Structure formats: C-alpha cells, structure tokens
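Honest question from a wet-lab person: if I give you the sequences of every part of a complex, can you actually get the arrangement of the whole thing, not just the pieces? Trying it with mine:
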Amino acid sequence: MSDYTNHAVVLKQRPQGEIQDGDLAMEERPVRAPGDGEVVAQVLWLSLDPYMRPRMNDAKGYMDPIAIDEPIVGESVARIVESRSSTLKVGDLVTCYSGWQEYVTFPADAPMVYKIYPKDKVPLQTYLGVAGMPGRTGYCGLTYVGKPNAGETVVVSAASGPVGTVVGQTAKKEGCRVVGVAGGPEKCRFVVEELGFDACVDYKAGNLETDLKAACPDGIDIYFENVGGAVTRAVAPLLNEGARVPICGYVSAYNATNIAEVETPFHVLKALDPVPEHRFFLVTEWQDKHQEITNTLTNRIAAGELKYRETHAEGLESAIEAFKGMLKGKNFGKQLVHVAD
Ligand SMILES: NC(=O)c1ccc[n+]([C@@H]2O[C@H](COP(=O)([O-])OP(=O)(O)OC[C@H]3O[C@@H](n4cnc5c(N)ncnc54)[C@H](OP(=O)(O)O)[C@@H]3O)[C@@H](O)[C@H]2O)c1
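Yes, you can. This is the full assembly:
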C-alpha cells in the first residue's frame, strides 16, 4: 500500500428508485502501490454523469453493474503523482476512469487513459464536459447517426447539459434550425441567448405539445433523444418523413424502480407509421476518433465558438447530493466535482 489518504464513495446497497441515505457512503480506502508500468493519480475533477445511476442497479445493461462495496464508476481529470511508467511521468495530466475517489493506481497503458495536452483558454475540467465524453457523444451522435443537412429542423432535449449544448451548437454550424427542450425559463433563456439556438421549449411550463409545435413549424427532421418520457411523446407526432432519431439516453427513467417496465423511446417510435429511423448509440463506437474530436471541440472552446455552462460541487463529500440533484435537473450545464487543485 502507498501512503496516500484516500476517500472513496462506494455503493453500500442498490437504490430502489431515487438514491436514499445509506445507499452510497464515503469511506477511507487504501491506495495500491504501483507495480511496473503503473502510476498513481490524484483526482482533481470528477465528472458526474447520468449513466452512473443505471449502473447502481443489479441489471446488466451495456455495462456491468457496480459491485457492492466498490467505488461508484466515473471519469476524472487527474494528475500523476507517482510513476513507474515510461509513458506517463509525475505531473502529467490525464483523463481516466478513476471512480469516485481521490487517488487511484492503474497501468499507464490502461484503456480509456488519455493524456491531456493543455491548451490556452480551455479549462481542464472541460475535458470531462463539452470537450470530453459528453461533448464527443453530442458531436458523434448528431454527425454520424443524425446526419444533419442544412435547413433541417433539429430538436434536442436536456439542451443546456453538456451533450445537448454540443448537439445544438454543432447543428447550428451545419446550417440547421435548432430547437432545444429544457426545464425552466432560466435554462431556456441561456440556450437561446447564449448558446444561439433558434428556440427553446420549457417542458415544465405545462404546454409542451403546443409550444413544441409552434417552435417547429416545418416539423422535426432530427430528434436527438436524451430524456425520453413526455418529451418523446410530444416529439413523435411532429417527426417528418425521413426523420432520424439518435437515441443517446433517456434520463427521465433512470430513477425508475423497475426500468424494464418503463415506456422507452423505442416503444414510442416503433408505434409510429412510418417508423422513423432510430437507434441507440454509444460514444465508444467512435473511440478511434477520440483525439481528433477532442481537438475539434477544444479548438472551438479556445476560439470562443463553443459556449457552455458548468455547475461545480466542492469536495468529494458533496458528490452524492450533487449527483441526486443532477438526475432532477438541479445542475445547470455540466455537473462536476472539484476534488483537488
Ligand atoms: N449513449 C452514450 O454514449 C451517452 C454518453 C453520454 C451521455 N449520454 C446520455 O445523454 C443524456 C444527457 O447527458 P448529459 O451528461 O448532457 O446530462 P445533463 O443534461 O447534464 O443532465 C441531465 C439533465 O436531464 C434533464 N432531465 C432530468 N430529468 C428529466 C425529465 N424527467 N424529463 C426531461 N429532462 C430531464 C435535466 O435537465 P432539465 O433541467 O433541462 O430538465 C438534467 O439536467 C443522458 O441521457 C445520458 O445518459 C449517453
């Protein structure tokens, strides 16, 4: 064992519905001393992402469930503090899947470990947000599954979050009319006035169907699905012939007690005639383009072209409450935890 004092947030029992006290707990955990080719990294920023909630369930999705007593999975920006590797040296910055903890030991050549080459005007934590996994998700899902053409109408839900932010601004660059869906007037104002979308519908305002129809007078050519539920049902009748629906996620169902009983976007879309082109995708389908797309996104941030918002929680101990809040939309933009400097 090494000498670092490490805290980790671990899964104590599987949440039934919303996360309750006692489901997750912060505990002191040892840090394994590095072997040959391994490094110890200190987590600086931890990313909180919606996918972590389904992984707390005892159901195999596209990834294995988190084991009881194990740290919650998660990606971070971390600094190498000890190295027995020739490829990563002390002081290097990386993104890695550390889990929710302060220190982690891993082989320098482990999958999904990427060295960060810092750029001016690109804050480190954006490598977890609009320049990171969610940003690449929005970029790839729109570009390769949505296949936008100039003049088309693109609707994206969870519009003020990191995925939606990149989807909308990328679609604007492609010459599309872009309509966001977000919760509350403040988020909707930000999406239009700061991110430059053409319109944004507040799904909490009580007139979702009519407001969406008014915002999409020519129907919808691409619906980028992030939330499912009532938003999908309102989008469905407005989809044009030839419409594409990249299914990125459906966060409205993630706290369901039994996710197998939820009406998913697949149910809603398959009931339409004609059935629109739609498929679930994973950002890892384009893992070979990781560096290229990261460069595209960081260049856009540095140029001031790609706008975004972030919510920072302070200290690992604040991660549980911040995560619970994010699943209800309490975050405004990318939810991060600042763990260390
Ligand atoms: N397929 C992949 O590879 C992949 C990769 C990354 C992310 N994703 C998915 O992409 C989606 C967005 O991720 P993100 O990181 O950008 O999240 P995010 O927008 O930062 O956070 C989730 C947002 O979902 C909205 N929301 C929560 N409950 C809702 C409900 N019942 N109805 C409508 N909206 C609701 C909230 O925004 P409002 O306040 O606006 O409601 C909340 O802020 C998620 O579904 C996630 O699982 C998929």
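Two things worth pointing out. Residues 6-129+310-338 form a domain with the Quinone Oxidoreductase; Chain A, domain 1 fold (CATH 3.90.180.10). The pocket of NAP is lined by residues 49-51, 133-134, 137, 158, 160-164, 182-183, 187, 203, 226-227, 229, 231, 248-249, 251-252, 281-283, 326, 329, 331, 334-335 (CB under 6 Å).
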